[in-house]
Amino acid sequence: MGLERFRVKTPGIGALLARSLLCIIGLLFTFSPPVCEAFNLDVENPAVYSGPEGSYFGYAVDFYLADSSSASVLIGAPKANTRQVNVTEGGAVFYCPWSLSQTDCHTIEFDTEGDRPVTLNETQYQGDFKSHQWFGATVRSHNDTILACAPLYSWRTEKDARLTDPTGTCYLSIYNFTRFVEYAPCRTEISTEEGQGYCQGGFSADFTTDGKVVLGGPGSYYWQGQVISASKEDIIKAYYPGYFIQSVERQIQTKQIRSVHDDSYQGYSVAVGEFSGDQVEDFVAGVPKKQKMLYGSVYILNGTDLSTMIEYNGEQMGSYFGSAVATADINSDGMVDLLVGAPMFMVRGSDGRLEEMGRVYVYLQRSPLDLELRQPHLTGTQSNTFLDFCLLVDVAISCPYGGEDQQGLVYIFNGYSDGLREKPSQVITGQWAAGTIPASFGFSLRGAKDLDMNGYPDLIVGCFWCQ
Ligand SMILES: *[C@@H]1O[C@H](CO)[C@@H](O)[C@H](O)[C@H]1NC(C)=O
Ligand SMILES: *[C@@H]1O[C@H](CO)[C@@H](O)[C@H](O)[C@H]1NC(C)=O
Ligand SMILES: *[C@@H]1O[C@H](CO)[C@@H](O)[C@H](O)[C@H]1NC(C)=O
Ligand SMILES: *[C@@H]1O[C@H](CO)[C@@H](O)[C@H](O)[C@H]1NC(C)=O
Ligand SMILES: *[C@@H]1O[C@H](CO)[C@@H](O)[C@H](O)[C@H]1NC(C)=O
Fold it and tell me: Which of 252, 276, 300, 310 to mutate to test the pocket of ligand 5 (most atoms within 8 A of CB)?
């Protein structure tokens, strides 16, 4: 089995508070049964998981529901040290079986090797550069498969001059931890900044309902960025240990376009959803630095050929519109809707100064390829940053450095027939005192899955610097 036991004793929150050795993270909240119509998260009894200090445990989180009888949580720790020989802070992903009484986590053994050598002209060179690769910065699950990526992984290109390119790489755990395969679609012969050398593939990722992987690589082609997709089965078939370059059948990817699109970061965020009314799920790609004026864009890409079907632009320069995207049927009309975050949206405060409040845009799908931007937008009310979303029946929006002491806040907004309610129904505050570094409660969020099988969805909130 590809699991290594990771021992932490977590006798409870009170005791955790006093432990400075551990970084506490990954909180689980459960919804309590509905009173009236609004759902309510039970914030009194969160399950708390923790990981090694300084490992950024909680930077990424997801559910893992491989079979109907058990549920668990996946937690990325991109700065964790591993047993890989001569690799420093390679990063890890932890598997934490869900239970209120025990909060033991195990590292998942996606990759146990150190840096592999590569032979060029009969001379051996270091082929991989896995130290500080941020493995676990992106984590997503689908059934009994887990995708985890290292967007800052580099490799020695097969060029003559010594070149290392941060292409990024991903691994899949398949068949419930029994096999592991690597998927590094940007590790190609088209190297350097002008090609896919700076791709950072896996900076963002998602799965379609039927198990296709979609990756964002915001650094390809002079940071135009790109979106790449292939089915799980084709990735497994193409994997051959020891080969750096693999060719995955039926893989699709967006291509290089005109140089005015350089530095726009397509694929900084990705999501999936059916927007064209056919049988093939489509992709949403955030392009937060699109255009010279940096207004940012979001593309809805055809899931079959990745052509852009719809493009939305941000309304304020530098607002990073598109750095977070999410899809869900907010108004329960059977069609998926789109949420776009602009975390650096500025608003003039009461004292007349511009402050970064952040803004979230809701686009309701009325019919295929026809989305309506709802007004008013959700705008932050205090200087903080909307960073991640997560979709339940309702929507959770986090502000990792929000709140009076920058402890982090998570807002729950209820959906209704015409979009999202303007006022949050619930606000969850980070429970840990802020240190010198903001706590980042809410940096990662996942929801809409039921862990404790009480019939109500649960929410995981990651906090990678809670003390
Ligand atoms: C690890 O690094 C040391 C020092 O650079 C080197 O001597 C040793 O051969 C390396 N081990 C492996 C397995 O690469
Ligand atoms: C989930 O995985 C199991 C075991 O591999 C498989 O039998 C089942 O069809 C999968 N379900 C989906 C929805 O892919
Ligand atoms: C490999 O050999 C070729 C031809 O002899 C030479 O041009 C090239 O520079 C060599 N590459 C490396 C990495 O030494
Ligand atoms: C999946 O793996 C976990 C961890 O090893 C194990 O507890 C669970 O029973 C497995 N599930 C199935 C369906 O094999
Ligand atoms: C999506 O792409 C496929 C294949 O190119 C094409 O047949 C289909 O019409 C496209 N759908 C839309 C809505 O553009």
Answer: 276
pLDDT value, residue 403 = 61
Instruction: Dump the DSSP string for 332-399.
Output: -SSS-EEEEEETT-EEE-TTS-EEE--EEEEEEEEETTEEEE-SSPEE-SSS----EEEESSSEEEEE
Residue with tokens 């598109």: 322
Place of tokens 């909060």: 103
**Per-residue pLDDT at 88 exceeds 60:** yes
The string of pLDDT tens digits covering residues 223-254 is: 999 999 999 999 999 999 888 999 999 999 99
Residue-level pLDDT at 45:
66
- CA-atom Rg of the chain in angstroms: 21
Task: Give the ligand at the shortest distance from the Cα of 309.
Answer: 5
> Given this model, what pLDDT does residue 319 score?
86
Mention every residue, 6+ apart, whose C-beta is less than 8 A from residue 21.
53
| d(CA 203, ligand 2 centre) in Å | 26
Length of the chain: 467
| Atom of ligand 5 at shortest range from CA of 368 | 13
CA distance 385 to 324: 11
Query: Residue 162 Cα, ligand 3 centroid: separation in angstroms?
Result: 11
Q: Which ligand is nearest to the CA of 277?
A: 5
The structure tokens listed for 58 are 């909680």
159 lines ligand 3 (CB under 6 A): no
The DSSP result for 30-72, as a single string, is EEEEEETTEEEEEEEEEEEEEEETTS-TTSEEEEEEEETTEEE
Amino acid type, 16? L
Q: What per-residue confidence (pLDDT) applies to 35? A: 31
Q: Write out pLDDT tens, residues 340-377.
A: 888 788 888 778 888 777 788 889 999 999 999 988 77
Give 13's DSSP letter.
H
Q: How far is CA 230 from each of CA 22, 125, 213, 378, rounded to the nearest angstrom?
A: 38, 30, 6, 35
Q: Is the dihedral of CA 257, 258, 262, 264 positive or negative?
A: negative
Of the candidates 106, 115, 111, the one whose C-alpha atom is nearest the C-alpha of residue 73 is 106
Measured in angstroms, how far is the CA atom of residue 253 from the centroid of ligand 5? 15
Cα distance between residue 51 and residue 58, in whole Å:
8
Q: Is the bond preceding 376 in cis, omega lying within 30 degrees of 0?
A: yes
Confidence bin at 454 (pLDDT 50/70/90)? low
Q: What's this model's pTM, rounded to 2 decimal places?
A: 0.86
Rounded to the nearest whole angstrom, what is the distance from the C-alpha of residue 176 to the centroid of ligand 4? 6
143 lines ligand 2 (CB under 6 A): yes
